[in-house]
Amino acid sequence: MKKVSQFLIAGSTVYSTMLFFSAAVLAGEILPNLGLDNLKIKVDTVDQNQEMSQVTSVSQLSDVQPTDWAFQALQSLVERYGCIAGYPNSTYRGNRALTRYEFAAGLNACLDRVNELIATATADGLTQTDLAQLQRLQEEFAPELATLRGRVDAIEARTSQLEANQFSTTTKLEGEVVAVISDVVRGRRVNGERITDRNTTLGARSRIEFVTSFTGRDTLVTRIESNNILSPDIRTTEGNLAFAGDDGTTNAEIDALFYEFPLGARTQVIAIANAGAADDIADTVNIFDGDGSTGALTTFGTRNPIYNTMEGIGFGITHEFGDRLALSLGYLSDAANDPSPSNGLFNGAYGALAQLTLRPSDRIAVGLTYINSYNQPLLTGSNAATTDFDGNAFSSNSYGVQASIGISERFVLGGWAGYTNSRTLAGDRGEVDIWNYAITLGFPDLGKEGNLAGIIAGIEPRVTSSTIPGFDRDRGTSYHLEAFYQYRLTDNITITPGVIWLTSPDHNSDNSDVVIGALRTKFSF
Q1: pLDDT tens for each residue of 452-470
Q2: How far apart (Å, rounded) are the C-alpha atoms in residues 194 and 353?
Q3: Number of H helices, E strands in the chain
Q4: Angle in degrees, CA 17, 20, 23, rounded to 5
């Protein structure tokens, strides 16, 4: 018989395989999952997440040939001692590197097998010389085995601690608080009324999100929110703050609730059960779109206002035609849960979106958007542009083009144009044309990595023509100028001072300019 010592000295090829029988799964699977990389065991990075399978014959290893120099040694270890394992794809990979720790772990595995054979009296022909050689090797690698054993014990203790304190195996808890100080620092009269609430205010929006994944590729988001922030009352919806609530109450309620999952390799589906918006379905192509938490301070600066003609409950689907072109389709109803007449999922207020998003290069993105909506007014702009036509039913067709161009890593040029045609379906019949434009300048990482400075210049939604009796077009032009600097104090705290300047608010040249100052602080965890 060939001595066991000959097999063990056959080379690093044999010992590499012995390691995978005992320690590869631990080092390649448990340690990366815990984020503990201080145990320096060299494991094949290609297959560190694959489990080894025991082989009973060397012929099961497709990359081992009888002409290989260590074939006889490997055959003996497989067929006589049973302490060799292969990869799931039936390969052995005998040429990968071996560390002393790996050798120690593999040697220990084979020693355990030899001891088992001796105990069961099946090790026919095992001599005292073989046993002495094995004992010598075991003593030589005793320090490595002891070190490895200590590290495994530490890992087990750490694993127990993490399991005892983990929130959930499938759910992450995330949260943020946005605190805002704001005031009207300039402006006296708008539309013949005096701006009376020129008081400094402090409000906060708090969100807690449970982000769950069942397969690793899907996402269930449940958000609980309270919000008592109010936009300054300047007698027009221009300059509305993006993070403001509806009524200023502090009641906590379920806000966003949606489930997103893949449908094939290039198709993503989202089912929205509450508080959905266009940005949940399609890319708004604006680096300042941070949903009020980051980026622009105003509703207008966050995204093209035509996106605001849809909200509520519904679904969306995005399919990518390669890496440069994507098609997004979506439908949201604002009265989906209302069973009363002229409401419900398909009879009440709704918005239906179709958008092509093109990315000619990594730095350029263009969005071409169409939205058909029913009883969904714009959320920002002049009073005429955001009207609900005295409660009369109306439908709208909105068209938008958005673009973002990364001139460099520190300078992004963007902007959009939007057109909305709204037609009344009852009462005084007619239609209005509404336009809006914007140019944005973004300066990522200005002064520090993670910072963002931004300038937004544009015209908020403005009625350019009207055939509806009693709804005149806007006679003047108001310019929206906004600047902010988002500074990251820490990974969890950002502070954003900013200013919004509205010339001739409500697109009325008789109104005095209004300047709004805001200081936003975001805490996240």
Answers
A1: 999 999 999 999 999 998 8
A2: 40
A3: 10, 22
A4: 140
What is the spatial distance between Cα 482 and Cα 525, in angstroms, rounded to a whole number?
28
User: Beta strands of 196-252 (E only): which ranges?
Assistant: 201-212, 219-227
- Two structure tokens written together for 350: 């709704």
CA distance 188 to 179: 26
Q: What is the DSSP string of 398-454?
A: EEEEEEEEEEETTEEEEEEEEEEEEEESSSS--EEEEEEEEEEEEEETSSSTT-EEE
Query: What is the per-residue DSSP string for 3-31?
Result: -HHHHHTT-HHHHHHHHHHHTHHIIIIIH
pLDDT digits (tens, 9 = 90+) for 257-275: 999 999 999 999 999 999 9
Instruction: Name, in order, each residue with C-beta under 8 angstroms of 142's C-beta and a sequence gap of 6 or more.
Output: none
> Residue 266 — φ and ψ, nearest 5°?
-125, 10
What 3 state SS string does 194-205 have?
ECCCCCCEEEEE
Let me know: does 267 contact 319? Beta carbons within 8 Å. yes
Average pLDDT on 14-27 reads: 38
**Do 390 and 427 form a contact (C-beta atoms < 8 A)?**
yes
Please report the pLDDT score of residue 1 as a whole number: 39
Distance, in Å, from the CA atom of 10 to the CA atom of 454, rounded to the nearest integer, reads 66
Q: Which residues contact 346 (CB under 8 A, 6 or more apart)?
A: 333
More confident residue, 120 or 217: 217
Backbone φ, ψ for residue 146 (5° rounding): -65, -40
Around Cβ 61, how many Cβ atoms within 10 Å? Answer: 21
Q: Taking residues 478-505, what's their average pLDDT? A: 97
CB 128 within 8 A of CB 92: no
The predicted model scores a pTM of 0.70
pLDDT tens digits for range 81-92: 777 767 777 777
Q: What is the DSSP string of 256-320?
A: EEEEEEESSSSEEEEEEEEEEEGGGTS----TTEEBTTEE-SBHHHHS-GGGGG-EEEEEEEEEE
Q: For residue 141, what are its two tokens?
A: 């690698």
Tokens at residue 272, please? Answer: 């929205």
Q: In this structure, is the dihedral angle defined by the CA atoms of residues 317, 359, 243 and 506, taken in order, positive or negative?
A: negative
SS3 state at 116: helix
* pLDDT greater than 50 at residue 410: yes
Cα distance between residue 523 and residue 237, in whole Å: 28
Tens digits of per-residue pLDDT, 170-216? 888 999 999 999 999 988 788 888 886 678 999 999 999 999 999 98
User: What is the pLDDT of the chain when averaged over all its residues?
Assistant: 84
Residue positions counted in the chain: 525
Segment 141-169 shows an average pLDDT of 80
What are the beta bridge partners of residue 458?
Answer: 438, 480
Structure tokens at 331: 């439908």
**pLDDT for res 33:** 38
Would you tell me how many other CB atoms lie within 10 Å of the CB of residue 185?
Answer: 15
Q: How far apart are CA 197 and CA 214, in angstroms?
A: 49
Of 489, 417, 486, give the one whose Cα is nearest residue 458.
417
